[in-house]
Amino acid sequence: MIGLIANPIRTSKSPMMHNTAFEALGLDYVYLVFEVDNSTLEDTVKGLRAMKVRGFNVSMPNKGPVIQYLDEITPSAQLCQAVNTVVNDNGKLIGTNTDGLGFMQACQDLSMDIIGKKITVLGAGGAATAVCMQAALDGVAEISIFNSNDKFFSAAESNADRINEKTSCKAKAFFLEDTDRLRSEIESSAMLVNATGCGFGVPKGPCLIPDKSFLREDLMVFDVVYSPEETALLSMAKEVGCKCSNGIPMMLRQGAAAFKLWTGKDMPLDAVQAALAEISNK
């Protein structure tokens, strides 16, 4: 058994994606979802360990807090301070992070070239951290990180500090409420990434960008939210003429990396993409 622990979870496409892959390869696996937040996280991890599951995915809001309940985390997860994939190695729970790899592979698949360029990233949570760290490691030149002026802003500052200390990329953290700074940083960036859950599960829901005047035609826009497939941010980006993507390509690629860890086999991407397309067309 493979699981996913997150909250909210009801719109997740991961079960369809992985179960399609298991069926295509004739593997005796099943992927289930469990709505879990921080309040029940410890007991859930204990339960999954006791049931001897092969592994599980971790999503918001559990990517950081889950680390304390695992036996070991990989260097990538250590750098991100967030885990999105856990492998049960004969009772030893090992956490890693495939989100950043998924993002960078998706950018490559979509011909969104950000290597050697500057990007602006909204957010400092688990997904945002993974995106920033992998982008910095892979050769993005500069990252401007924006987060609300709240108790989580220290995470944005910490991410910028780690990037500056451990990579050749330059990073700075800014308050999201400073709209003048937000506008100027986006203007000098090749890509804007919404790496928060803003708009998740809400058709034409909220958006962290005040209006479309913050965007321009040659700006690339990547929203890690994959449900709805067109967020308010992407709707604005399309109006302006930006090259843009939702979070489905990233989800697919990070899922393929996790699939390989659990099964030792490559995910049949064609079968999974066909299933995703079928759902989208309904």
What layout of secondary structure does this protein have?
Layout: E1 2-6, H1 14-25, E2 31-35, H2 41-50, E3 55-58, E4 72-73, H3 75-80, E5 85-89, E6 92-96, H4 99-109, E7 118-122, H5 126-138, E8 142-147, H6 153-166, E9 170-175, H7 179-187, E10 191-194, E11 220-223, H8 232-240, E12 243-245, H9 248-263, H10 269-281
Parallel strand pairs: 1-2, 1-3, 4-6, 7-8, 7-10, 8-9, 10-11, 11-12
Antiparallel strand pairs: 3-5, 5-6
Helix pairs in contact: 1-10, 4-5, 4-9, 5-6
Provide structural commentary.
Strand 1, helix 1 (14-25) and strand 2 (31-35) form a beta-alpha-beta unit. The longest helix is centred in the last third of the chain and has 16 residues, at 248-263. Helices cover 40% and strands 19% of the residues. It is an alpha/beta fold and 282 residues long. The mean pLDDT is 94. It has helices at 14-25, 41-50, 75-80, 99-109, 126-138, 153-166, 179-187, 232-240, 248-263, 269-281; strands spanning 2-6, 31-35, 55-58, 72-73, 85-89, 92-96, 118-122, 142-147, 170-175, 191-194, 220-223, 243-245. It is built from ten helices and twelve strands. Strands 2-1-3-5-6-4 form a six-stranded mixed sheet, with helices on both faces. The chain has a six-stranded parallel sheet with strand order 9-8-7-10-11-12, with helices on both faces. It is globular.
